[in-house]
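thoughts on both lines:
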Amino acid sequence: MGASVTSRALAVLGAFDAEHRSLSLTDLARRADLPLATAHRLVGELHRWGALAREPNGDYVIGRRIWQLGLLAPVQSGLRQAASPFLHDLYGTTLSTVHLAVRDGLEVLYIERLAGHVSVPVVSRVGSRLPMHATGVGKVLLAYAPEEVRVEALRHLTRITAYTITQPARLLEQLRRVRAEGYATTGEEMSLGACSVAVPVRHGDTVVAALGMVVPDLRRQLPRLVSALQVAAHGIGRTLAGSASVQWK
């Protein structure tokens, strides 16, 4: 039985990711594994509906209507709304890049980001996904993930920089320390010149997100940043506990 129209349309939308935010029709057809004529018809329908937008050079990008629908997702509307004032307070205090992230399978999904003033190489964007083992927020989420998730993640410890931890035993020890100390750090493991620190965000007893910052160096300011993050994370958790409208998967 052939693929349905719905599955083909979803394949077109799924062709976009953090590294492929703008695609030509030919590239869309190739990445969606569709004949060019089929891709042309589906792209036309998605464009008319607003799921895709067309750039001046003819390439396609995700349209505003998809963005509007995404904002309705509980993880977006509830968590982002609860966290927003605390993220802005953190940013105002530190002027560093601030992240709010959740786990999506074996990856970190960034649902909010405030860009810092200090020039630090930051690869994450809102909506982007990165490997858990190479990011501060990812290590937090991995430390509190179900055991089967950790086991699977340990099989995919890809090296991103010379400092990325790819030894399972070493990462497991770091995750044990995250649970014991309440925070995670990275040192140029995702991008050279960038360090990060992150803490868990709890809804009741469950870790539902991670809150982190990216800075050039952690050596002299780690205690101050951890304290600021933990205060903010506690505030977010308190807000979530008082909101009956927040839903969790």
Q: What stands out?
A: Residues 5-70 form a domain with the Arc Repressor Mutant, subunit A fold (CATH 1.10.10.10). The chain has nine helices and eight strands. Residues 245-249 have pLDDT under 50 and may be disordered. The first helix runs from residue 5 to 14.
